[in-house]
Amino acid sequence: MLDERKRKILNAVVYRYIMTGQPVGSKALAETLNLGISPATIRNELSSLEDMGYLYQPHVSAGRVPTYLGYRFYVDNLTGRIRLGVEERRAILALFSSKTRELEQLLQETTHLLSRLTRAAAMVIAPRLDRNSFKHIDLVSLRDDLILMVVITDTGRVEKMTLSLESPVKPEDIEMVQNYLNEKLSGKKLDQLENIDPEELLKGVREKELARAALEGIVEMMFREEYEKVYVGGAVNLLRGLDQEGLEKIEGLLRKFEEQYHLLNMLKEVIRANEMVVKIGDENLATELRSFSLIATPYNIGDEMAGTISVLGPTRMDYARVIPTVDFIARSLSRALETLTG
Amino acid sequence: MLDERKRKILNAVVYRYIMTGQPVGSKALAETLNLGISPATIRNELSSLEDMGYLYQPHVSAGRVPTYLGYRFYVDNLTGRIRLGVEERRAILALFSSKTRELEQLLQETTHLLSRLTRAAAMVIAPRLDRNSFKHIDLVSLRDDLILMVVITDTGRVEKMTLSLESPVKPEDIEMVQNYLNEKLSGKKLDQLENIDPEELLKGVREKELARAALEGIVEMMFREEYEKVYVGGAVNLLRGLDQEGLEKIEGLLRKFEEQYHLLNMLKEVIRANEMVVKIGDENLATELRSFSLIATPYNIGDEMAGTISVLGPTRMDYARVIPTVDFIARSLSRALETLTG
DNA sequence: TGGTAGCACTCATAAAGGGAGAGTGCTAAT
DNA sequence: ATTAGCACTCTCCCTTTATGAGTGCTACCA
Fold it and tell me: Among A152, A150, A208, A147, which Cα is nearest to A180's?
């Protein structure tokens, strides 16, 4: 579709624009490209590339700037140019070589690293709860009618909830219910718990109110976590080199960032992807993201896909550097999680 | 020090400037003040107030703008003007009337409400861990040499940590250590735990490695939480109506906001206050806050001071509205926590 | 003596004009 | 097919000019 020369020119325009942020002119291209052709020839090619929708001119006497399509071409033809910097490699290995950490802490630090290395906003979606299996339940009385329920999963995730009861319950009953539930539920996948008939299960216990509240609580907890938790970092990076009007646009986006629910909604088109996804500009579903680029890739625990890590930055982003960085972080995280969760 | 007329004029200037954002001129003041004096007289007074350091002129032909000192005077003389709006009252009561919630969730929602109602950035410092007392410890094996430790406090706070052991440990030993620690530590204030001699305590157990790791873990956990957790919300509000240069200044501040440690450092001068504090402009210790106003007030659990809620906004802030809002939220939160933690 | 009218003065802001420079598209020549 | 040459367009930046807001000062008044 595009001949060799056009491809070279297009790639050069995008590359230069990413580096400088300035529209790229024919003269500068002739100098760097070394194709032995004059600016005039390049101008013809540029004009042609503009007709095809890969480039546009901000105004008539400016150089060319890539359209979303132009970036798309560039990203799809990155082979060779792409490489992980030594700096990045070192920082990533440093983070993941330190051991014995909390899942949450690890994800939090991953988010930080991601945003720092890519200079973009980073989002890490935590592993879904429903794939975990039930490990242990703990009932602790705060008051005789107020019980704190703590549920621990096999991946070391800890969720808690306060149960407020109508009537007081005795310590020995609490312990009994706890033991009973532990025995009955141990090892079950969390999403199987929804199908358990509570009445059936409750037959064996005396203190029905507490047991029922606990069961309902567990199901509610799953519901609460239906949209998974997201860690966000480096949202400030989106402000970098922004003009007045850009600022107003971004305000709405940052507002969405503060709410898990909205954030996940924006990300949902990439959440389920099982390989790296690069969405450029209007390729994004969420309107708030239309002027940004989103790079997302899944991470695993063992063989199972667990969650997604992603970065959000301007379409004018150094893809050749960011893509391998995101990729390597995802791999490193997967490896770390495997040893962390046993 | 200031006569009646000067006070009226100064208050009017600050009030008007807060409302409009425009420098206030003598003519406009003469119209609104109804003191029966002419603009010329007001000009004399303004000039005098400027000499005293309460006002300044952005440039010679502009009206007057309050200095930090001017805001300070205004805030110190708010009596009468101050009142809680019905809107705000309703929203606050609505949030705190719904019941049975997690401490963390409640604090998170409080942060949200605070930023929404004040249109400023909100920070809520969670109750310090060391005042809590030990309620229950839970050791769950993830693998035979990887133990998840969960510590529950009497206020329903749950902290966890993974313990990685040199040698595998048997399930019955885990249970034994867990029971032993529960018995020994139950009811102790967390800050007392630091003084316990581990060797003394360890005499009674066979599985010393696990027990020692657990003890060290608890102490480390306290250390980890020495600087308390902070919830942040509405940082975007700081971007409101910002010019290009203000944007660059604020970028550094927002970056600090992303790190608990730095954030708490900035807040530390107000953390220990036991009544409402209003810090205006350069009254702030942290240089990053020098061009903002910080309003902070403590909240309690029972009779004990538990944490601090605060908002950060431009010095040109509607103090008459924000101050009572922050105050009422703090009171409501205190009340809610009392019933939540029993 | 405190208040006021009048007036000259300053300065920000906006609109208008005018190079300079960058980069283009087009044309004609190779 | 490629290129040199050139006219053209438009942004950017600087200067100029007009406008208007608001002041400080001075002289006058009750």
Answer: A208
C-alpha to C-alpha distance for B221 and B216, rounded to whole angstroms = 8
pLDDT per residue as tens digits for the range A212-263 = 999 888 888 777 655 578 999 999 999 987 777 778 788 889 999 998 889 9
Q: Alpha-carbon distance A333 to B234, whole Å?
A: 30
Between the CA of A239 and the C1' of D13, what is the distance in angstroms? 27
Q: What are phi and psi of A312, to 5 degrees?
A: -125, 125
Concatenating the DSSP letter of every residue in A103-117 gives HHHHHHHHHHHHHHH
**Under a CB-based contact definition with an 8 Å cutoff, are residues B162 and B142 in contact?**
yes
Nearest by Cα to B47 from B72, B25, B17 = B25
**Of chain B residues 214-273, which have a CB less than 8 A from chain A?**
233-236, 239-240, 242-244, 247, 251, 254-255, 258
DSSP classification of residue B318? -
3 state SS of B326: helix
Q: Which amino acid is at B290?
A: R
Q: What is the mean pLDDT of each run of 10 residues along chain B (342 residues)?
A: 92 97 95 90 96 95 96 95 94 86 86 97 88 84 86 82 88 91 86 78 81 87 71 94 77 91 91 94 94 96 90 97 98 88 60
A138: which chain B residues are within 8 Å (Cβ-Cβ)? 136, 138, 150, 152
The residue whose CA lies nearest the C1' of nucleotide D23 is: B61
On whether the CB atoms of residues B161 and A103 are closer than 8 A, the answer is no
Which of A153-157, A300-304, B298-302 is modeled with the greatest confidence?
A: B298-302
With CA atoms as reference, report the closest residue to A307 among A133, A125, A158, A132: A125
The per-residue pLDDT for B229 is 86
* Closest C-alpha among B318, B308, B339, B340 to residue B111: B308
For chain A, what percent of residues have pLDDT higher than 70? 96
Nearest CA in chain A to B158: A160
Distance CA B68, CA B54 (A): 7
How far is A304 from A213, CA to CA, in rounded Å? 32
* Residue B67: closest CA among B57, B49, B52, B55: B55
> Using an 8 Å Cβ cutoff, are A114 and A254 in contact?
no
Among B162, B164, B245, B262, pick the best mutation site for testing chain A contact (most A Cβ within 10 A): B162
Q: The dihedral of CA B117, B123, B129, B131: what is its sign? A: negative
Q: Which of B195, B184, B187, B177 is nearest to B138 (CA)?
A: B177
CB A39 within 7 Å, strand C: yes
Position A262, amino acid = H
* Chain A residues close to B147, C-beta within 8 Å: none
Q: Is the CB of B37 under 7 A from strand C?
A: yes
d(CA B94, CA B88) in angstroms, rounded, equals: 10
Check if the beta carbon of residue B330 is closer than 8 Å to that of residue B309: yes
Chain A, window 72-101: residues with a beta carbon less than 8 angstroms from a chain B beta carbon? 99-101
% of residues, chain A, pLDDT over 90 = 57
Kindly determine whether residue B156 and residue A135, on different chains, have CB atoms separated by under 8 Å: no
Give the count of Cβ contacts less than 8 A between chain A and B. 95
